[in-house]
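U., I forgot to send this yesterday:
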Amino acid sequence: MTTEISFDYSKYNFRDEVDYKHIFQPGISERVVEEISRLKDEPEWMTALRLKAYRYFVERDMPTWGVDLSGLDFNKIRYYVSPTDRKFSSWEEVPEYIKKTFDRLGIPEAERKFLAGVGAQYDSEVVYHNVRKELEKQGVIFCDMDTALREYPSIVKRYFGTVVPPNDNKFASLNTAVWSGGSFVYVPEGVHVEFPLQAYFRINAANVGQFERTLIVAEPGSKVHYIEGCTAPIYSSESLHSAVVEIIAMKGAYVRYTTLQNWSTDVYNLVTKRAFAYEDAVVEWVDANIGSKATMKYPSVYLLGRGARAEVLSVAFAGRGQHQDTGAKAVHLAPDTTSRITSKSVCKDGGRTSYRGLLHVSKGAKRVKSSVRCDALILDDMSRTDTYPYNEIHEEDATVTHEATVGRIGEDQIFYLMSRGIPEQDALNMIVLGFLESFTKTLPMEYAVEFNRLIELEMSGSVG
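Result:
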């Protein structure tokens, strides 16, 4: 078998000619940070927090582990690009060129079919937001972070930066300094949001940084599922996506956070995602990383209350010129907590995948149960996969398992399927999709179909 890639990115690789309301010159400084806050008319405490985070960002060194970041030049990135000064709750009011972009990506159709609410971010700003009226009557808040800061300042001030502090890491500091857009979700006690909430993040301009900030607060006994999707057109120069997600799951709450990331292969995707799970709460991260030039992302759950549960299911697909450094963290700080981490990765055409995970059990966190499983599939001799597990167990009364496997697709498997009349490319697709099925079956049907389509596009031309 020979390996040649021919990935059709045409659905996502388009760009709009936009007369931007605000487009900053490349580079970052205190003045840039202050100007972002001024344009948004933010309270003094947020401006002060941004400036403090900027100083942390300047002081922190670049990571020397994970992906190669030597090509990332912060002085070539635009830190604020806004197509409009308005946010729209009616789809008819959205500017035509933005409407066409999200129409092509299927956002309004998805909203009409089965979503409880939708937010759409274009470069630095959320341009459209809508939520079902019955959820508003139940007290559910789903809006962009800028609106939340303006309309619900006490809630935002109480929780913002408490899960991911501004000095957590270099890229969390950068996000806190220049954040714009993102989502705010607040679910009152006992309220179950039966349909997913969705946000879609689109980079359109070249050399732009997108720094959305998402905060989800689930009060005791509540339930919510949040889904995000991400794309960008392909340019000859790099862009940066550096988001921060904070989740607070109170006693008995359930939160699932699903990501389908399909950035173009000139985007550095450097993200911090973390959740606090209190007594009997459940937090699930469901994470797919298909696109980007380089990804560093490790969704984590801090299990703070007795009986809290965490599940992280991640998949990564790396083709030519891509390095997906992904994984998960489960930090057990209370007794009778459980976690399960499942990682699946596929690499081809010289791509590289890495699993990097942390399992921590604190002294006194008795009767912890945790399992970690990492499965990697390598499709050719040019590609590479690595596993970097870190297990820190400080309590004897814990049950912990770790398993890692690396496999190749054998010619006998292909031959077996072909002998039953299945074309070679379809046979290869079937094997890869079967390998990733544990992820696909967690998705709503529309998303599962889209995910399978993306994988098939990535696999196009894999045999010859």
